[in-house]
Design a protein that fits this description.
The complex is a heterodimer of chains A (319) and B (203). Chain A has 319 residues and is an alpha+beta fold. In chain A, 36% of the residues lie in helices and 15% in strands. In chain A, helix 1 runs antiparallel to helix 3 and helix 1 packs parallel to helix 4. With 203 residues, chain B is an alpha+beta fold. In chain B, 29% of the residues lie in helices and 33% in strands. Chain B has a five-stranded antiparallel sheet with strand order 7-4-5-9-8. Chain B has a two-stranded antiparallel ribbon with strand order 1-6. Chain B has a two-stranded antiparallel ribbon with strand order 2-3. Classes of the chains: A alpha+beta (319), B alpha+beta (203). Chain B: This is Mitotic spindle assembly checkpoint protein MAD2A. Chain B: It is found in: Nucleus.
Amino acid sequence: MPFGKHSPLTCLVEFDGIIKGQLRGNIVTEMLKYVLYQRQQIPQTYEQLKQQEQLKQQEQSKQDKQQEGETLQLKRKGPQKLQVRKLSEALENIEALFHNINQAFSNVNYINQVVITLGGTPISPKETYIIKLPGGVFEGSILSKKEVIQTLFRTLISQDLLGDFRNMSTTNSYVLLQAPRNSEMQWFEPKAAYKLPNRGKIIEVSLVCNQGSNALEADLTNVSSSDFEISGISPLEISTVSTEGTLCNSLNDMSINDSSFASQDVDKEVSPNSPDAMATSDVEGHDSEFIWYQAPVSVRGFRDKRASAKMSSCMDIWA
Amino acid sequence: MAASTCQKNAITLKGSTETVSEFFMYGINSILYQRGIYPPETFTRVQKYGLTVLMSTDEKLKVYLQQVLKQVKDWLLDTTLQKLVIVIKSLDTNEVMERWQFNVECDKTVKTDSKPREKSEKEIQKEIMGVIRQITASVTFLPLLETACVFDILAYTDKDQDVPETWGEAGPHFIANSQEVRLRSFTTTIHKVDAMVAYRNDD
């Protein structure tokens, strides 16, 4: 992976259990919220902005009712109006991203990496956040959304990865998903030539599901690729194999594009389309099968100018 | 507030006291907003530390916090404050749900007439911004407070301090079976503040 002159900041988040498909999408949307707020692209957390927007709408509809029958005059001053527009636009784009990220994770089973870039373009960003999603594990309890999100953020906040970063000016945030070339990805646009940036700060968050994986790894070292017999699992939920030479080598012998795999008895074969079997650049020779898909909208960062206007009066109250 | 006693590159005991008590004011307000102790519509946005911080407009709360922080300021100036703890309790059961602890290390060698310590205001504000940001982000991992809650403020001081009239002696309000997450810290070089949050482990 091209990381240029700066080595990436890394954070390993370990989960004791299985993370099911849709939850992987939730992880990405929560990470996006976190990055946008922590890197000052939105002045308050997404939830707070949303709440304020709702309160504003309620006020507005009350005013509209009161003024029914009269000519409605927009009384907001110019800069405030611009501020409201920026907030609405940002929220609209964030919501579009959330919706489509969740859709992508529902429709495509093999998204194994997500990138959030902050900067003018996704090719030369100031900061790149690489989220390496966990492969499935075969055994273990299924984690709830609450457990997953709490573990993720407890780890991120305890490790304080972004704590010493300099303040950042407002810029554009882009989201890219990595999935197989032939996947039926909608809304996101394929960017086959996209390579991970080697400039700016790179932050790599690796999510790993631990439970059951050790037992599996031990078994895999003793069997050939044709001997896999893994029961009770979804065919597309295969554990991480990038660190296991035996499994990687076995998988290299299989043809990624061999459509006959789709019809094989999945309980007896590791699906080559699994996120792990196709563990991107970690599996030699299979890089080209995964490509990046870019979200067609970006989030334009903005500052809260309305808050500054209120500062003096509020400070007077509290002084 | 703190600007007059915290020059650009140096800080006095008085300036440090102002800076730390001001942090407590914004920090406590942030916690009360984030954790939904008071309704969101009773808060207003202000710009501080390069952040948008939510401050309460509830008159009773403002008076209460002003009283508390006036005393806290005295302890900071005497370098006798050891901890400030915000305890969030269930209104119905009085059970402690969350405990936000700010450990304060005071440099007791510094007096009001001591030479200012070198540390830029900008640097201190940046460190404080990091703590406030973490307080805000903590909502992502803290359990939802499902019942109506109230809060208490506890102060730990040096043993020889008299208990002020408006304060009473209280227990530590620990949480049984808790999870703790250490947050960032900041220092003025005279006062160092370490933040952490403890919450009920329901798992």
